[in-house]
Amino acid sequence: MHVITSHWGVLGRGLLVSLELSAWTFLFAAAGGLLLAVCRISPVRPLRLFAALYVSAVRSVPLLVLLTLFVFGLPEIGLVYSLFWTVVSAMALYWAAFFGETVRAGVRSVPPGQTEAARALGLTFRQVLRHVIVPQALRCTVQPLASLLIAVVLNSSLAAAVGVTQELTGQTVLLDQQYAQPLVTFGAAAACYVLLTLAIGRAAAVLERRLAVLR
Amino acid sequence: MHSTVRTRRRSVPLAAAAAVAALALTSACSGSSDQSVPGAPAAAHKKAKTSALDKLIEREAPASASLMPPGSTAAEIKKNGTLVVGGTQTAALFSQLDPTTGKVEGFDAAMSRLLAKYIIGEPKTKLVNVTAATREALLKNHSVDTVFATYTITPERSKVVNFAGPYYVDGLGIQLREDQTGIASLTDLKGKTVITQSGSTAAAVVKKHVPSAKIQLFDTNTECLQALRQGRGDAYVLDQGVLAGNASTNPDVKVLSTAYEEQPYGIGIPLDRPDFKKFVNEWLKKIEADGTWATVWKNTIGTQVPGPVPAPPTLD
């Protein structure tokens, strides 16, 4: 047990890096995902086609394969930047596909009659999106997006496999190597992840209640 | 392509043989550049080395039954018919898969085959891939009988596993890209990014000597080497024998000649099998005395590290 009590700092810093990694990833994935969702529901055929292709291509590659491809493949074509941001970009591109599909499902849940009504009132495509569809779509995607965020946080542990050993799982592996007590070290890491996901779940529940519209 | 004579690839405790080294390395270089040509001299040469090892393994006499009383670990392994070895397929000169033969070759591989022959009567081994991170765990839960994997003996590790040996002593070396200059020793790594294997002893040593160095960890030798070649770090620090192996297969990297901190390699054995440690130590004494150890060295590590065969390390 003293492995943990005397190494709170190590685990804490690892947790912080994991959070940072997940936060940036989710932020960029959200931006990319929204863009993808807009493309998929846009009236422009090439955009729809591009988004559909992107989603089906990226979603079919295991995240670890994608990470390895980015970390060891990009330098082969002369693109070398910091490992942390390489991992963030790979993860963001990956999760953007999921984010986009989630948002699209939300948009589809808005009855077409509303869109037609908005159009009839003379709103442009952008206005229809901003004032009618997106607010309602986001409301019913709160829970699925929270699940997505949980997946992002948990899968940030894959970063350790491609050299970002500063994050929580990486630090745990290093602690385990030093003290060879996997039950204790990985147990502590698991507890940290559980706390994180519970917090995300709670936050999502609160947010959902706030956004709920009484009909 | 790489026709320049590279004299810096000489290795470990044999810096004295510098002149011979330059000569030997020149030939080694031209040899490796010919490897893509079928039937090139290098390939034929390699074959000869391998068959020398095969002969050696054939000659290894099985242990007498009195050394393996019923209930001992060795007797159990003999009953199982295979020695399950924790090792790797990616450490050149020590344990590397030869894709043309499908066999794992190198110092560690040959030693494990010799041990299998000694116990079972046939060189039957089963290789379980290990990384620096998984060795202790696999020994602990008896997934492997023993570990031959450039496994440095440290006080911390000795608490969780038994080490037979040491059977080889290496030092930490520094690997650089061929075109790099300005790094000649460990102290030149101040403020630089140093790549090393997670779970290896190198990270701690670098931190001790140059606290300002930034450590970048990867899981395997291949990943570390690739990261160095792709410029993710300024130097790759690991056991010099492994680095010499890297340089032998990758002409775009070099190894500095100086080595730091002795790294005694041990044969990993589960903590609850002290009888097997004694058994393996007796075997090591035997093969070191009868010249088998020297022959293995000459045909594996000795093909890249110039100089006479070193004296095997004294057992703990």
Automatic annotation (TrEMBL), chain A:
Topology class, membrane: Multi-pass membrane protein
Keyword Cell membrane: yes
Superkingdom per UniProt: Bacteria
Residue ranges occupied by any ABC transmembrane type-1 domain in the UniProt entry: 15-207
Intracellular or extracellular location(s): Cell membrane
UniProt key word Transmembrane: yes
Main location: membrane
UniProt entry keywords in alphabetical sequence: Amino-acid transport, Cell membrane, Membrane, Transmembrane, Transmembrane helix, Transport
Pfam families: BPD_transp_1
Transmembrane stretches, start-end: 21-39, 51-73, 79-99, 145-164, 184-207
Family matches, as NCBIfam families: HEQRo_perm_3TM (TIGR01726)
Similarity comment text for this entry: Belongs to the binding-protein-dependent transport system permease family.
Name of the protein this chain belongs to: Amino acid ABC transporter permease
Organism: Streptomyces ziwulingensis
Automatic annotation (TrEMBL), chain B:
SMART domains linked to this entry: PBPb (SM00062)
Gene3D superfamilies: Periplasmic binding protein-like II
Domain Solute-binding protein family 3/N-terminal: 82-304
Keywords for the protein's UniProt record, in alphabetical order: Signal, Transport
Signal peptide: 1-24
InterPro entries: Bact_solute-bind_prot3, Solute-binding_3/MltF_N
Pfam families for the chain: SBP_bac_3 (PF00497)
Family affiliation: Belongs to the bacterial solute-binding protein 3 family.
Name of the protein: Glutamate ABC transporter substrate-binding protein
Species of origin: Streptomyces ziwulingensis
